[in-house]
Specification:
about 210 residues; mainly alpha; 2 domains; 12 helices; elongated
């Protein structure tokens, strides 16, 4: 059953999805990351949630367009709001939970707190992410695990520390272990190089070596 509901023509201008449908969503399937202040999950976490809000007509719970205080008597609204808060609390680390939890917060307040935490610590996160990015090596990891380089670069771009495509591809190649020596040389000859092309080639090479 779809959780979408058309607002146009509804008697209640804030009519939205059925609270039961929202409550039954498996949040860990839809947001398969845990937000942590010390790792590079913020960009992915925020992206997954933004998609979830848009897919299920929940944006007005977090964007400030609706005054939640005016909705306290709307059981449907408050039930959905409570579900969103539960989603947030179960997709963040224990340390972050204790930092942001507060009685009386609505979903919008929790969302703002969690997103505000990262710009407020932008310099600290930039140092941490740059260190992880520039010292990332394949070692005994799989190619898929090693490709967290892309996630790290997205996180850095998200806080204004741009990692251009050439640098990303150079770091991907430079961090390969000696088993991928021939692959690294071949990557430099690839026409119109891109991250997806490099990763696809390295996955095939990994499969061949196994």
């Amino acid at each position: 059953m779809s959780v979408h509901s058309s607002i146009s023509g509804a008697t209640n201008p804030f009519a939205g999805p059925d609270p039961a449908d929202i409550r039954d969503i498996n949040i860990h399937d839809r947001v398969p990351v845990i937000l942590n202040a010390t790792n590079s999950t913020y960009c992915a976490w925020k992206t997954y949630f933004s998609l979830l809000f848009h897919e299920n007509n929940l944006v007005d719970h977090v964007d400030g367009s609706v005054d939640s205080h005016a909705m306290v008597d709307d059981s449907k609204w408050t039930a959905i709001d409570a579900t969103l808060i539960r989603w947030f609390f179960t997709t963040i680390s224990k340390d972050m939970f204790h930092t942001v939890v507060s009685d009386g917060d609505d979903a919008r307040a929790v969302w703002v707190k969690l997103n505000g935490f990262f710009p407020d610590n932008k310099l600290r996160r930039r140092v941490f992410l740059q260190q992880e990015f520039f010292y990332c090596r394949l070692d005994d990891q799989s190619i898929d695990d090693y490709c967290r380089l892309k996630t790290l670069s997205d996180e850095l771009r998200d806080i204004g520390a741009k990692i251009d495509d050439d640098l990303l591809l150079n770091m991907l190649t430079a961090g390969l272990n000696e088993d991928f020596g021939n692959a690294a040389a071949n990557l430099t000859l690839m026409p119109k190089p891109s991250f997806p092309k490099f990763v696809a080639y390295l996955r095939l090479e990994e499969r061949r070596m196994k």
